[in-house]
Structure to design on (162 residues):
């Protein structure tokens, strides 16, 4: 508690007015999150529908977990771009020029195994939420999210072990 209060005191400039960073827009993020909520609710797919959509021409399964977790295991056919590496340029390179391309996402919280490489995250912080918001924020609105919790040891999942 003392450290938190000390950090806050040290963060305030001498004139007492903290200046916002023009490269960080929390209000814009809050608006984007609110606006994306309804779209995301309509884009949740059961596993069978996820597999069917992934089989469509030009569909992309995007795994936004870290490169080391992806290398340790992922859904067959997925490509990796860690969320921390999302930029307009990196997304265009991985996804391509077609902004209407179906993009399917999943995260650790879609698996019941709760062990590496898919250790369970706090539900409000699940990577799917951040990934969905970021993709739409970068202009990719054809995003679909796996809604089911599955066992990566189930052969139907097509899990590729690292």
């Amino acid at each position: 508690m003392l450290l938190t209060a000390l950090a806050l005191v040290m963060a305030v400039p001498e004139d007492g007015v903290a200046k916002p960073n023009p490269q960080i827009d929390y209000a814009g993020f809050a608006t984007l999150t609110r606006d994306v909520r309804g779209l995301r609710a309509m884009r949740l797919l059961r596993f069978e529908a996820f597999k069917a959509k992934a089989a469509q021409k030009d569909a992309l399964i995007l795994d936004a977990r870290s490169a080391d977790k992806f290398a340790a295991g992922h859904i067959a056919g997925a490509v990796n771009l860690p969320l921390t590496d999302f930029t307009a340029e990196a997304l265009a390179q991985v996804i391509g020029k077609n902004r209407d391309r179906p993009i399917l996402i999943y995260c650790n919280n879609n698996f019941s195994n709760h062990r590496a490489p898919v250790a369970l995250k706090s539900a409000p912080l699940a990577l799917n939420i951040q990934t969905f918001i970021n993709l739409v924020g970068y202009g990719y609105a054809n995003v679909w999210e796996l809604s089911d919790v599955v066992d990566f040891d189930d052969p139907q999942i097509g899990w590729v072990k690292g």
